[in-house]
């Protein structure tokens, strides 16, 4: 039986209807046209049950998952007084459709020796939504979370993503 953050995450993934993938970012107004740059350390799944926050952990090799009833942006986003913070909606390219919210029909996640399920710490997460749309969140980037869609988790695995000698990631799966 799971407790703590992991139990809340499992309940969210099994029961929530995901409406959007929100990416916090900053507006850069240095050129003639403002540019929004995603802050690669956090992703939020917005749903009818609140938000699933996926954050890069401090050790740069794990994702920290937590369920929040209300959207709370990381304080690090507001460290610079003149930064203009915005949320970027990634619903169409990342969920596959803007027409209807999506239920998670299955998911895979990977753990390694640094993972701690009760604390919500895993290595990588692949979500499959209705319509077979996939969203992959991977922690093995120097500059933050790597996002992918379609069969990217299997491609990354075939290239040895997340493998450390003597500590290969273990795959876990849930299907509706």
Annotation field: number of helices: 3
* Helix and strand element order: HEEEEEEHEEEEEHE
For the record, give the distance between the C-alpha atoms at the N and C termini, rounded to a whole number: 18 Å
Instruction: Please identify the structural class as seen in this structure.
Output: mainly beta
Radius of gyration, taken over Cα atoms and rounded to an integer in Å: 16 Å
Q: Give the overall pLDDT as a whole number.
A: 85
Relative strand content: 35-45%
Sheet with the most strands, sense and barrel status: 12 strands, antiparallel
Question: What is the global morphology?
Answer: globular
The helicity comes to 10-25%
Uncertain segments are none
What does this structure look like?
- This protein is mainly beta and 176 residues long.
- The chain has one domain.
- 14% of the residues lie in helices and 42% in strands.
- It is built from three helices and twelve strands.
- Strands 1, 2, 3, 4, 5, 6, 7, 8, 9, 10, 11 and 12 form a twelve-stranded antiparallel beta sheet that branches.
- The model has no long low-confidence stretch (mean pLDDT 85).
């Amino acid at each position: 039986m799971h407790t703590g953050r992991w139990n809340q995450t499992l309940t969210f993934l099994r029961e929530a209807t995901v409406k959007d993938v929100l990416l916090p970012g900053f507006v850069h107004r240095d050129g003639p046209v403002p540019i929004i740059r995603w802050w690669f350390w956090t992703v939020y799944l917005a749903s009818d049950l609140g938000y699933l926050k996926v954050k890069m952990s401090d050790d740069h090799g794990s994702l920290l998952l937590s369920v929040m009833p209300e959207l709370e942006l990381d304080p690090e986003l507001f460290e610079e007084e003149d930064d203009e913070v915005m949320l970027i909606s990634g619903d169409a390219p990342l969920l596959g459709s803007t027409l209807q919210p999506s239920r998670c029909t299955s998911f895979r996640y990977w753990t390694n020796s640094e993972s701690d399920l009760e604390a919500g710490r895993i290595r990588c997460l692949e979500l499959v939504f209705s319509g077979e749309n996939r969203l992959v969140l991977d922690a093995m980037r120097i500059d933050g979370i790597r996002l992918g869609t379609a069969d990217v988790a299997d491609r990354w695995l075939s290239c040895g993503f997340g493998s450390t000698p003597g500590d290969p990631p273990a795959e876990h799966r849930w299907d509706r």
